[in-house]
Amino acid sequence: MGIGGRLKSWIGDQRVEQLRDRLAELAEQSTEHHLRLAVTGLSQSGKTVFISALVHHLLHAHRSGSLPFFDVATSGRIIGSRDLSDESGTPFPLQQAIAGLGREPPHWPASTRELSEVRLAIRYRRPPGLRRVLGESATLYLDIIDYPGEWLLDLPMLELSFEQWCASQQRLFEQEPRLSVASDWLTRLRQVDWHAPAEPALLQELSGTYTRLLHRLRSDPYALSLLQPGRCVLPGELEGTELLQLFPLVLPSWPMGAIPDGSFLALLKSRYEQYRQQVVRPFYLRHFSRFDRQVVLVDCLKTLNRGEACFEDMQRALNGILQSFNYGRNGFLRRLFKPRIDRVLFASTKADHVTANQHHNLDRFLELMIQDAQRDMGFEGIATRCMAIASVRSTQAAEAQVDGQTLSCLRGWRKDSDEEIALFPGEVPTELPRAEDWTQERFRFIDFAPRRLPQNELQPSHHIRLDQLLEYMTGDQFR
Amino acid sequence: MGIGGRLKSWIGDQRVEQLRDRLAELAEQSTEHHLRLAVTGLSQSGKTVFISALVHHLLHAHRSGSLPFFDVATSGRIIGSRDLSDESGTPFPLQQAIAGLGREPPHWPASTRELSEVRLAIRYRRPPGLRRVLGESATLYLDIIDYPGEWLLDLPMLELSFEQWCASQQRLFEQEPRLSVASDWLTRLRQVDWHAPAEPALLQELSGTYTRLLHRLRSDPYALSLLQPGRCVLPGELEGTELLQLFPLVLPSWPMGAIPDGSFLALLKSRYEQYRQQVVRPFYLRHFSRFDRQVVLVDCLKTLNRGEACFEDMQRALNGILQSFNYGRNGFLRRLFKPRIDRVLFASTKADHVTANQHHNLDRFLELMIQDAQRDMGFEGIATRCMAIASVRSTQAAEAQVDGQTLSCLRGWRKDSDEEIALFPGEVPTELPRAEDWTQERFRFIDFAPRRLPQNELQPSHHIRLDQLLEYMTGDQFR
């Protein structure tokens, strides 16, 4: 007698039929489910390449074996995957990006300038134990959403008045390199009578200058990250609109007295209010509130190479970004919506630029950079992990003998000269650098030229830990 | 009006007096408390040096500043410490060991052969917030108990019949190097008629041969760890008693038929039963059941140097030892007593024999060795951590330039020649070695000569992470 027969003999025919119908209904409901996985990071952290390579491996996972630690792939349970990105209103340029990575030399895709998404349908067989009850197979609709981390930097504006925001910016512009780079603009601000009737043309001119200033601070040699408003740097679909004609009043002292209607000051204040209400809030309401999980990419090595000011600014920016996950402290986020992100992964990119022997140090170094934010997230019930990864692996392991011991080295192509080299690429520091560590040009990680990612025949050696990342971010969904 | 006055106005004089008396009583009760911290490890893992150095730093913690990450010391709350080890029935030879470490050249204390303990009384000021309620100061009586890890190897015997135990030993003796080293003894066993009337003299001779065999397997070049019965290796106070005249019957086939009364087989079986009841059980009842926390020391580097057989045997032994903390699976431990160990720290010793850059790899390597046991302990509610430490630091950091990058090196004195050297000491593997890793003599960690530990003026540079270990194991007790 099968389980159905036994059940009937216990609780009667009719109840068993009802139960069976209910199970079938449940099974139907659960054969399709959705996961929205967001990917962000500060500029040049490699988001676009990451998404392209990740999806490329995923689309081949049913036959390539390139993701050994991604259980649903390794156990042969992926039936097939389809790219449905065209259904999205803001599709990620997937085919183009993957094709670019496969050229010789590879063509690195254009960087993230606005929100876009990949939509995948992944059909998989359930694990053996669940097949009987829930049916043989199911489909995970996986949305991977790419957006600039700079947009998250605007979150604190939701809590700050215009005066408070200007004061916070003033503290930044008191320090180098901002102080020197911005000196002309700071002088210009002092020459304006902020109580005089507003001239929109002048405001446009000043905001244009400010935007150029932000771009200069963002570029080499400064490469700063903590730049607000985030949309002035990466405007997305707001490019050229009045909403972005906005800047902080960084003055030695705040213009005293009442703010006359129609004055420069009143106009600037209303622009700030508009930006908060029409740009920052909608991003959280329309997009952020719908993310289930988040990957944050960080290029620790490049930031170390660039020196103290760049590193510290990046660390501040990163911790600013992570405020968006600190729902408790930022009560207004919880008032805006019911947060649902339950898992955040911090990925140190370009792990292929150091030896495997340094990967734990790279994991740990990122942990040190964000330890306070990570603790806060733990308190909010968000699981977090730091992981060193490489989206496309440009180097191979090599060895050298030093003092009779084996030293792990790398073989690859120098980015600047494209000559093949095999060398010791340096150590990842085990502690956050102290002031004296910066004086001696301690960090000189080599930039290796990217390798092409084949269109087929993907191997585990084409990436570092993309499979572990997928397992952590999506593994529990393939039930 | 103080808090007492305000309370009186709310709830009346008499109740406040009662409350005050009760608080004073509570405070008195809590001015003294005990913690029993057990330390074990397989032979030559450095238990005795570890305890000597740890206690030496602790006794100087109120004035030396050598433990920066040990909060109660750094915040200046330790008033003073006293060594009360003489009160113990089995005192650890503390003064002698510390004096030995201070000689030039240092005299390494004799290794652990039986259970012994250090008793310390540490008087400390409470943290500011608790002083008002609980009184200004309190005393922690810290017992540090040293015992051979080999004794824990006997735990599985509590669950195995003599036949089952012999079968488990047979599987071990089928493999090299045991098979070759034990060949004479194995032949001898086959020549005895186990059903014949027992001759105690022959049994004594055979058990003597077996004990010598265990010692041979335990020594270089084999250096095996998984040796049972543990007391035959380290007899402690049982040295020379009949209880240890015992060995497993490792025969091609088990002697068939009923076991005649008074036969060799019957005698051996009863010895096994005696050993379980009079040696193994009492250790758990009298000692193990009273431990609050446990440190397990492991010398990963030495074991890697010794090659595959030694490494794998040590890994098996270590996981065997950790069964003692797996109360759930070993229900008989829970039937014996109410286990109270709530925290276990696994310390990789001799972290000073690799560079600081390799310490995370050393932490992680030990985690890989014990990952199953660690997961089981988590399930039992026992907090665990792996930490690379050095009890007495023999090396200093040095640097070399390789390919234009800085490579961390060590400076120290070679143990074999006592010449001063500065060199790259090798990398800790990031994964458990595979078969092919053993063929090329991959692991050749240098043995550095120990440095003397001064009697006074202790510095943080005299150890690695003893302070973090103390904080993890005892920090919460200084309230």
UniProtKB/TrEMBL annotation, chains A, B:
Pfam families, sorted:
DUF463
The protein, known as: YcjX family protein
Q: Which species?
A: Marinobacterium zhoushanense
InterPro entries, alphabetically?
YcjX-like (IPR007413)
